[in-house]
Write a structure and sequence with these properties.
Blueprint (H helix, E strand, L loop, with lengths): L1 H5 L7 H8 L2 H14 L4 E5 L6 E8 L2 E9 L2 E9 H11 L4 H9 L2 E2 L2 E8 L2 H15 L1
Antiparallel strand pairs: 1-2, 2-3, 3-4, 4-6, 5-6
Helix pairs in contact: 4-6
């Protein structure tokens, strides 16, 4: 299955990606985005050396809400906190899970924001990511 995720000649469906991730947090997050923001996913292939393979993008009014990178057993959520979201994200991350707090603190500001590559492996992190998306979507 992992060859499917990295094979640019075979575009997987959301069902295939869900089976690959094999973690209920993936389905919960996708449902959260689609029901709260009326957004459907865009499955795209990335050649980026940092995270090569198929990913799922969610956008609102042309603005990226997040990009999901399916992994075996978990997923990575890329959330960019830009200048507009910075003040609210600073307050929120000071009171969230240790993992998110440290990641936010240690991710430098570059290219217009903090590019948070968040490994979603547990529900507390998922809840924090959902809140960051809410901040981003305002």
């Amino acid at each position: 299955m992992s060859n499917t995720i990295c094979n640019q000649n075979f575009k997987p469906t959301m069902d295939i990606l869900s089976a690959f991730v094999n973690n209920e947090l993936w389905d919960e997050f996708c449902q959260f985005i689609e029901s709260n923001y009326s957004r459907t996913s865009q499955i795209e292939f990335s050649r980026c050396s940092m995270q090569k393979g198929w990913n799922v993008k969610y956008k609102k009014s042309g603005k990226s809400l997040c990009t999901l990178y399916p992994m075996a057993g978990f997923f990575i959520a890329l959330v960019v906190i830009g200048e507009k979201e910075k003040a609210e994200a600073d307050i929120f991350t000071a009171n969230c899970s240790n993992y998110i707090r440290e990641l936010y603190r240690n991710t430098p500001y570059s290219c217009g924001g903090r590019w948070l590559m968040i490994e979603v492996k547990e529900s507390t992190v998922l809840n924090d990511v959902m809140k960051l998306i809410q901040i981003r979507a305002k």
